């Protein structure tokens, strides 16, 4: 089940709000411009799946989203605990950053934890299979795939170069819960 915990940015211990119903999560995230949806999934897709097969399985909703939002590039990221770059990638994604475009992820399998730093709040979103999240351009955030990652996600970009981050240099992410804390 997906979950949203909202913290004061200077109080990372106790959330001020905890939500686990889809409609409540959508409403709360919608207030800050974050799109959150649940799509039907193909249960046979697991980490290590062929990217072409993943994209083919979700061609219709991906195409709809591309037409609606103008996304130019689509790819698949697949991560498990055997991935040779998992530690390097985890550390990179755990650093607070922002993008000049929306960061859109659809979790085909597994899970990950997005944390969004907006004004004086931090929105921590546990995304699981079937969840689509779109973090608006310019929103500071970080992502935790966990110590033992297991996920497949479709990524959509406006920028043909794909994932380009501008790191804030702020260590705020070090103070907030990690994926394991939500499991």
Give the gist of this structure.
It contains 5 helices and 11 strands; from the N terminus they run ββαβααβαβββββββα. It is an alpha+beta fold and 183 residues long.
Summarize the structure in words.
GO terms for molecular function: acireductone dioxygenase (Ni2+-requiring) activity; acireductone dioxygenase [iron(II)-requiring] activity; iron ion binding; nickel cation binding. It is an enzyme of class 1 (oxidoreductase). Its cofactor is Ni(2+); Fe(2+). The record marks 96 as: May play a role in metal incorporation in vivo. This is Acireductone dioxygenase. By secondary structure, the protein is of the alpha+beta class. It has one domain: Sandwich (Jelly Rolls). It is built from five helices and eleven strands; from the N terminus they run E-E-H-E-H-H-E-H-E-E-E-E-E-E-E-H. It has helices at 22-30, 51-57, 59-69, 86-93, 179-182, and strands spanning 3-8, 17-19, 35-38, 73-80, 97-98, 103-118, 121-128, 131-135, 140-144, 150-157, 166-167. The strands form two sheets. Strands 1, 2, 3, 4, 6, 7, 8, 9 and 10 form a nine-stranded antiparallel sheet that branches. A hairpin with an 8-residue loop joins strand 1 (3-8) and strand 2 (17-19). The longest helix is centred in the middle third of the chain and has 11 residues, at 59-69. It is globular, with a radius of gyration of 15 Å. It starts with a strand and ends with a helix.
């Amino acid at each position: 089940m997906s979950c949203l915990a909202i913290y004061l940015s200077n109080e990372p211990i106790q959330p001020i709000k905890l939500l686990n119903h889809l409609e409540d999560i959508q409403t709360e995230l919608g207030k800050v411009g974050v799109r959150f949806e649940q799509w039907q999934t193909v249960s046979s897709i697991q980490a290590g799946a062929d990217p072409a097969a993943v994209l083919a399985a979700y061609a219709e909703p991906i195409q709809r989203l591309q037409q609606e939002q103008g996304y130019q590039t689509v790819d698949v990221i697949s991560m498990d605990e055997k991935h040779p770059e998992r530690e390097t990638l985890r550390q990179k994604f755990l650093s607070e950053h922002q993008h000049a475009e929306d960061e859109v992820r659809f979790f085909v399998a597994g899970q990950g934890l997005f944390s969004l730093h907006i004004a004086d709040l931090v929105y921590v979103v546990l995304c699981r299979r079937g969840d689509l999240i779109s973090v608006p351009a310019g929103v500071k955030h970080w992502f935790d795939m966990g110590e033992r990652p297991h996920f497949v996600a479709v990524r959509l970009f406006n920028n043909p170069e794909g994932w380009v981050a501008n790191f804030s240099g702020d260590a705020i992410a070090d103070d907030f819960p990690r994926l394991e804390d939500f499991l």
